[in-house]
Amino acid sequence: MKNILLFGAGKSATSLIDYLLANAPRQKWHITVADHDLMLIKSKTGKSYYATPAAIDIKDQTARQQLIQETDLVISLLPPHLHITVAKDCLQFRKNLLTASYIDPEVRKLEKDIEKAGLLFMYEMGLDPGIDHMSAMKLIHSIEKKGGQIFSFKSYCGGLISPESLDNPWQYKISWNARNVVMAGASGAVYRDKGKTREVNYEQLFDHNKTIQVPGLGKLAYYPNRDSLGYMESYRLENIATFMRATLRYPDFCEGWNALIKLGLTGEDGKIQTDHLSCFDWATRHIEGADKQAGHEEVMARFLGVSTKSKVIRQLKFLGLLNGDQLNLGEKTDAEVLQHLVEDKLKMEPSDKDMIVMMHEIEFERRNMATRIHSYMITQGEDNVRTAMAKTVGLPLGILAKLLLQEKITLTGLRIPVMPEVYNPVLKELEEFDIRFEESFE
Prior knowledge:
InterPro entries: AASS (IPR051168), NAD(P)-bd_dom_sf (IPR036291), Sacchrp_dh-like_C (IPR032095), Sacchrp_dh_NADP-bd (IPR005097). Helices cover 35% and strands 24% of the residues. By secondary structure, it is of the alpha/beta class. The chain has a seven-stranded parallel beta sheet, with helices on both faces. It has a seven-stranded mixed beta sheet with strand order 10-11-12-7-15-16-18. It has a two-stranded antiparallel sheet with strand order 8-9. Helix 16 (388-405) crosses helix 17 (420-430). The longest helix is centred in the last third of the chain and has 18 residues, at 388-405. The protein starts with a strand and ends with a strand. The model has no long low-confidence stretch (mean pLDDT 92).
């Protein structure tokens, strides 16, 4: 019997738990799911004979280390800042670790020790990062094998809502961790464009967004994602003129989020007392000399330079920013207040369906002929629990866990999934779950 330990039973864990439990009888696995919320774990594992719920506080070192010592493989879907705690334990007790999160500077410091211990710590094994790396590398390797010289690489991905579930002015609903949505883009972005390094700060990120055409969906807006340059080496494309990774949204979302940034409502510095503070007073705190006697819509519209009938005003109204309701959340940062409002107003209803859209656009030259390839994937969720987001984040982790425990993969070190021995079998099995790419050439 092999034991798998999963930390975290949140939104992204549903399809992973389903996959592990479906494979458990045949593979002779037992799965322990650890989270602080026992009812949440049980809602995901049901009465399965192959699962044990473990309600623990992740900061409880004794409880955490006991679980890690008793397992054969650890998967972490914890909030990103907690992975390092688990990673250090996995190193101490010689356990392989899989996670969907980005490699952070803290775990980078353990790189030599991980290699020396002969362990595999596979990071970025979810959707984006994850499926994006695997599908991109498969394309890149196939172009290079045929003698193509790549000169431009652009990759786009977004967790969106299916067109039939779009019923609010934001054209967006929360299908994953709301904190990540609120903090997205906060560190700005850097990428390469026609040989020049471009840096975009947070204040400009959602301003005047460019759009791309997605087959069957039409126009989607995109904004560059974090540090694209860091991946040029991983993809072995250090010398190309254009390299960008970007996030997709419906255009209306970017316009509304830009307004929230202008209003100063996404900040993390300093807490404010929200008891007896109305939503409107909170939202206009940074507007100097605002005529609070004027209508709420007028104050906002004047500051943002839009009409009171504009879509942006409708969006702010929808979030409740124009009403006199009191927040009463105690001491919070602006970002925490915003997260509370977003979770409440933009939540998915039980029948809502989400959608993942990913597209790679690669330009290359072969036999003196310039070619552009588009490779895209559109995946839909079933409802507000079995979401496309949960499926695309969770399944790659489950499939890699299976390959590791079957000893079909013997890699070691701190890695991301850019190698054929990982991407070929994982992408192949993902097709069984309707996660597949279509390609077109120009």
